[in-house]
Structure formats: C-alpha cells, structure tokens
Amino acid sequence: MQTFDNASAGAIVLSMADRIIENRAYLSEIDGKIGDGDHGVNMAKGFGMAAERLKGQDAPLSEALETLGNVLMTEIGGSMGPLYGVMFTEFAEALAGKDRIDAATFGKMLHAGLSGIQSIGSAKVGDKTLLDTFVPAAEAFDRATADGRSFGEALEELVMAAEKGRDSTIDLVARIGRASRLGERSRGVLDAGATSCAIILKEIAEGARARLA
Amino acid sequence: MQRFINDPDLVVEDTVRGFVKAHGDIVRLAENPRVVVAKDAPVAGKVGVVTGGGSGHEPAFVGYAGRNMLDAVAVGELFSSPTAKSFHDAIKAANGGQGVVVLYGNYAGDNMNVKMATRLAAKDGIEVATVVANDDVCSAPPEEREKRRGVAGEIFMWKIGGAKAATGASLEEVRATAQKAIDNCRSIGVGLGPCTLPAVGHPNFQIEPGTMEVGIGHHGEPGVRVEALKPAKDVARDMVSIVLDDHKLPEGTEVAVLVSGLGATPLNELYILNDTIEEEISARGLKIAKTWIGNYFTSLEMVGATLTIMALDDELKTLLEVETRCTIIL
Q1: Where does residue B43 rank: exposed (0-12), middle (13-18), buried (19+ CB within 10 A)?
Q2: Above pLDDT 70, what percent of chain B?
C-alpha cells in the first residue's frame, strides 16, 4: 500500500505558497473581471506570510497546514480568509498525529476540509465558487480508491477533476458572493476562487505523489 | 489618480491611525490595530455592541464607535470583510459580561467571518447574538429579502441597538430591538459616478456620463436599471417610491429619514434631493420625526446618494433620542 511520510512533507506547503505567489497577478486579473480584483493580492499576502513562518522549520505537513490555516484565518479577511483558513485547519486536524499518510487518511482530510468550508459558507456546486473545483476533485479521488486504484493514481484523478471543475466555472453564472450581483454578466470568465483551489489541490496532490513509498 | 494617499497597500492603516489621533477622546485602538474601541468599553454589566466591515465607507464603520453606540468595530481592507480574528477581538473588547451583539451587513465575507468569530468567542465563554442588515431594496426582490445587502440602514440598527444596550437590556432584548430597527428600514442608492480602489487604480465598474444607476450598491453592485440622468426632483421621487412601494406603511406612521452622500456628491445636492423627499413622504401621509443629511455612509469617491427610511414605533422613537457620543452627530 502506498503511503507518504507526514514528518518530512511540510515543504509541500512552501511549494504551494510559491505557486500562489507566482499567480498573484493572474488571479487578480481574473477576479477583476467579475469581482474587485484583489484575490491574487490577498492570497499571495496570506500564503507568503505563512511561508515566511515555515521557512527553515522543517515542519511536518500537518503542522505546516495548521500554520497556513491560522495565518489565512487571522490575517486575510474577505471571503477567502475564512474559507481557506477553515479548509487548511481541517486538513491539519485530519493529519495530526499520523506518521504515514495513506489514501484513506488523505480522503478523510479532503472531506474534513470540504465539510469545514460548507459549515461556514452556503455555496453549492454550480454556484461558480471554489466548490466547483473541490467537490468533483474529492469525488474523483473517492471513486478511484473505491475502484481499487493506487493512491498515486487516485491523486492523478484528483488533479484532472480539479482542473476540469475549475474550467467548468467559465460557463457558470455566479450565484453567491460579489460576482452574483452581476447575474448573466458573470458568465464567460473563470472564477478566481475555483482557479486558486485548483492550484492548491494540484500542489498538495503532486507533492504527495512525489513522496509516495 | 487625484487622491491623498501614501502607499495604496497601506490606505487602511493610514486611515485608522489618523482617525484615532483625531478622536482620542471618544475611541482608542485595541491591541489588534484593526479594532477600534469606544473609550469607555467594555462597560461592566452592559451588553456589548459590535460591528465591522470593509473600509472605504467612512465615517462608517469606525465613526460610529462611542458611548451608547458601538463598543467596538472590526476594520477590514477596502471593501473587504475584516478577518474572523478582528471580529473576535472586537467581541472580546466589547464584552462587559452580559454577552455581545454583532450588528453587521449581509455580505458573504462578513457572514463567514462573523460566524467564525462567534465560534471563537464561544470558546472564551462569551455569548454572541447577531443581526444581519438587509435594508437595500434593489439588491433582491421582496420574496428573497434574506439575500438583500445591508447599507445605510445599518446606522439606524447601530443607533437603536446601542441605545437599547445602554438601558441595561438583556442580550436577547438588544438583539430583538436591533432586528426590529433593521426590519423597519428600507434603503435605495442612486449612483452617478464610479469609485476606484487605490491598489487597483481604475474603477471596476462604469457609469456613463449623462446616466444614473438606480439601485446601486455600496461597492458599485449593479442596480435595477440604468437610465438618463433626470432633474433631482424626479430622482428623489423615484427613490421615495422604490423605498415605500417595498415597505407599505399605514398613513400617520412616523418615520426617520437618512439621506447620505456616497462620497463625492456635494452636501448641497443632498439638500436639493431632500426638498422633494420631504414632500413625497409627507404626501403619502407619513410623519417625518427626524431627518439626517450628510456623508454618513460613503463608498470612496462614488458620486451618488442613498435614502433610508425607518418606520418608528414608540420604542424606536424613544431610543432614537438617547444621547450618543461618537464622532458623528446622531
């Protein structure tokens, strides 16, 4: 059975922060089309602060995720601070105390994060939010493991479904948050939260896959 | 940009610092520099009253901190909800041992951050009640009132909630009275020109010269229609009709009226609007008990105005008269 080591995987959060910071301008640009254009700025600020705290710490993945969740919750307001803050905090709790992370634990982590988001937000799939990335990604992971595929294959399925989910937001009309005030005018562009969520899930999945043993 | 700013990323820090320097007799900064606290808060034995919201709406939200008003205010980035931590710190700063009511506007970010802050406060043993303002008539149809945004009616909600708390009422009584205040409020905004977030550098919505956006939101959210700009008396008539068609009030009802500029409309134009607003309200058989005109709740340098009408009963009328000491005269 494939697993990866919790204690040595904290660097996944650092590479996640690098990807978010690289995409600062891009995320703000797509947000600016239907929102107020600050998604990339706020995300880069939060992930950058977390990375600063984690650098040189060699923290386990569970602790690095907790640091990230706390920084987002305490330093980044708006909608993304609490949503991603609760998601990473729940991820961290699901992994806490585990030496090796297997597919079942990883799946539990995804669902804990999802439940956390759904406990504070009221969005559903199809509302043009990060859930349009997250929900199909978690479902694809579940399906692959239920079909008896390896942890590594399930992670590949997760990434593909996340990116497909992200792209599905182009054709959606926003039904929640500031973009929802635009109605039909919100159709035709990617949702910024769905886009950042795809980046996050891809980094965590690929980071895990690279460490499987 | 013709703006008085230093660094576009530090607009909020610079604003709050200047605000607290000017009003040290009324407010102070909490340990968290994103929380402004009334000077004498927390008041032992009194229900704490808290709000919070994005910056750029000055004098809202910080200007309403003070005695018999808001005990603490959480400050967000421009047009962006304060963090859950800031709401939590504001709740702690306002807690006089009788619980805290958070009176805020219906926006996705604020809803989530207040919810998280409430959970954090529960762990401290602080009981929190909330009231969510949804007075903006044009932001959703009447059958979906729970989706409507909160706008300038929040000021009445704070005034009434703060005054009720000052009477020594319980948390549930303060919550219920603040809820009644906002239920009795309806507002409408009309926009004539857009506003710009300094860090973005250009407006993220447009209002063509010669047109107006009827029903515009506090961040430029689209209204119900864009039409040619009309004489002030016709605009005022439309504003009163939209508000009172949504909130049918029996003849003889007493009302409080608030006309607020959105940031870049001269005060004299608000008086011009009010000249007709007063006529129109009176023509419907309603009695105006009190009128406030000024820049009470702005949206950076948006050109435009909002009208809020609150129906009064004996309790609300009495509470409106309670003396408050904040930076804004109410």
Answers
A1: buried
A2: 100
The reply to whether residue A79 touches residue B112, judged by beta carbons under 8 angstroms, is yes
Asked if A36's CB is within 8 angstroms of B112's CB, the reply is no
Cα three-residue angle B299-B303-B305, rounded to 5 degrees = 75
CB contacts of B300 in chain A (<8 Å) are none
Nearest CA in chain B to A72: B83
Name the residue range of residue A122's domain: 3-210
Q: Does A188 touch chain B (CB under 8 A)?
A: no
In B, which residues are within 8 Å of A78 by CB distance?
Answer: 76-77, 80-81, 109
Band the pLDDT of A186: cuts 50, 70, 90.
confident
**CA–CA dist A62, A10 (Å, integer):** 7
Q: What is the pLDDT of residues B4-54, one digit of tens each?
A: 999 988 999 999 999 999 999 999 999 999 999 999 999 999 999 999 999
Superfamily assignment of B185-312 in CATH?
Answer: Dihydroxyacetone kinase; domain 2 (3.30.1180.20)
DSSP 8-state symbol, B137: G
Domain locations in chain B?
8-183, 185-312
Question: Would the CB atoms of A176 and B85 count as touching at under 8 Å?
Answer: no
- Indicate yes or no: CB of B200 within 8 angstroms of CB of A37: yes
CATH of domain B8-183: 3.40.50.10440
From CA B176, how far away is CA B165, in angstroms rounded? 11
DSSP conformation class of B8: G
Nearest-CA distance from A16 to chain B in Å? Answer: 22
B293 inside 8 A of chain A by CB: no
B302 touches chain A (CB under 8 A): no
Q: How far apart are CA B330 and CA B23, in angstroms?
A: 16
Tokens of B99: 């619980």
Length of chain B: 330
| Nearest CA among A109, A208, A164, A79 for reference residue B83 | A79
pLDDT in tens, B114-154: 999 999 999 999 999 999 999 999 999 999 999 999 999 99
What pLDDT score was predicted for residue A37? 75
Q: Minimal Cα–Cα distance from B88 to chain A, Å?
A: 10
Would you call A120 an interface residue with chain B, using a CB distance cutoff of 8 Å? Answer: yes
- A21-25, B21-25, B77-81, B203-207: lowest mean pLDDT where? B203-207
How many separate domains does chain A show? 1
Here the ipTM equals 0.82
The answer to whether residues B164 and B173 touch, using CB atoms and an 8 Å cutoff, is yes
Residue entry with tokens 């709000």: B51
Any residues with CB less than 8 A from the CB of B141 and at least 6 apart, and which? none
* Tens digits of residue pLDDT in A65-86: 999 999 998 888 888 999 999 9
> Is B219 in Cβ contact with A78 (below 8 Å)?
no
